[in-house]
Write a structure and sequence with these properties.
Blueprint (H helix, E strand, L loop, with lengths): L1 E8 L8 H20 L4 E8 L3 E8 L2 H11 L5 E4 L12
Antiparallel strand pairs: 1-3, 1-4, 2-3
Length: about 90
């Protein structure tokens, strides 16, 4: 599986309350569980919420599965980028 960053344009998501975010998370989890039960390798690691966007980190076999999740969940996948490498502060030490 490979890591992907998904940019989702969602107006006003940054001002959504906890219950709204809980509902969105639950819907996403439901679709992911359905997809995995169909033998599709896809997992949501976490998301960053900004003013009008989310940036989601997914581990999956292909961008096609991300697009399928977007269609089934109703959450747009405005831009999908494959992660080629990761770095952190520890990268400078090694």
């Amino acid at each position: 599986m490979s890591l992907f960053v998904i940019e989702r344009d969602i107006p006003e998501i940054g001002s959504a309350d906890r219950e709204a975010l809980k509902g969105a998370s639950g819907k996403s989890n439901q679709v992911l569980a359905e997809m995995r039960s169909e033998g599709k390798n896809i997992a949501w690691e976490h998301s960053y919420v900004a003013d009008h966007k989310t940036f989601c980190i997914y581990d999956t076999d292909s961008e096609d599965l991300i697009q399928e999740h977007a269609r089934r969940s109703g959450f747009p996948a405005t831009r999908v980028t494959a992660v080629s490498k990761t770095i952190s502060p520890a990268t400078a030490e090694g």
